[in-house]
Protein 1
Amino acid sequence: MQDVVEVKHVQGYLLELAFEDGKRGVVDLAKYASLGGVFESLRNPSYFGRAYLNRDLGTVCWPDGQDIAPETLYDMIPGGAEPR
């Protein structure tokens, strides 16, 4: 498993991520915003933009405790840079 080491909100539901092995790219997390339940507050674009890197977990989190597994995010990078 590769930890997320950088996260940047690009726009809407897009996050630019970098992983500890050097792989980086942009992921579209719109489907998570439409799930409801624990992810309900992600529907608010302003709240979604408050995504941050939780170094202890090695992944992206939001203020209310939502997170997405780093391996899920890693696999979502379309054509992202290959690991160094």
Note: The two ends are 15 Å apart (CA to CA).
Protein 2
Amino acid sequence: MNEQETFVAVQKNHEGAIINFKTSTGRVLSYRKAMMEVENGAISGAYVWSGENGECPIRTTPRESPINHVDDLPTFF
């Protein structure tokens, strides 16, 4: 049985915004690609939250992830 991937690290731009995600298998996904994979169920422990202002940030699923927020994930370069 294949285990679903999870997010293990993030890459941020100079303003501190997340631009890429690294998965548990080592893949690097752009924010948009990560959103698509979360919505399709390919990534566990995360969901896309629809904000009041139209933004759709990726958030972690509290019970499935030891990290409380994607901003708390380690960074990679």
Note: The chain has a mean pLDDT of 85.
Protein 3
Amino acid sequence: MTQQAEKNQLFEQMTSALIEALEDKKAMDVLVIDVRGRCDFADRFILASGRSDRQLKALAQSAGEVAHRFGMSAKVEGLEASEWLLVDLGDMIIHLFLPEARESFQLERLWSAPHDGDAVSS
């Protein structure tokens, strides 16, 4: 197996472990968005919602524990406001929202690829 294939496999394993960890902590509406080629600071976003700021913090902590198991460090931003936490894992960014904030920012719509045949204005 090539080094790039091993890296890709590890990236997929980490993504699966992160999703499992978020779901174990009762995250809602977990979504993975591939942003390669559309974003120069990350390859993948994981979005999830929580019911309270306390749950968002628990989700962020759980994601950090998974990152640690994979030999990575996690930087958490947004702890002061606690309606949108960002967990920076380098090539992967986890966005944890309260439902109202997620609806307001609409990252799914912003980062989703246009469908074939959709008009793209310039």
Note: Confidence is low (pLDDT under 50) at residues 115-122.
Protein 4
Amino acid sequence: MAEDCLFCKIIAGEIPSNKVYSDDQVYAFRDINPAAPTHILIIPRKHLTDVSAASGEDQALLGHLLLKANEVARAEGLADAGYRYVINTGKDGGQTVFHLHLHILGGRHLDWPPG
């Protein structure tokens, strides 16, 4: 856990969140500033600054993150109409919390390009 990391504090229960899913490797919760009707963040319990900080030892964790995101999207009723995953990396990539997180966005038509 990184002491000054917002998401590490959420995982530790120091900051409240609206939990959607949790297991020993990942934690998913509703975004407090949603960009779509359904906007969930799924984060690894292991602190990784961003996806580029992952190494070979994180391969199973990254796979688990994606598979659990699939389960969450299905549970939220997004599978039939579709949804989008977003992983922002670095300041220019739009990352504002420097703990790897995957956005699950859905519940409306999502335009392309995104921004």
Note: Strands lie at 19-22, 26-30, 38-44, 83-86, 102-106.
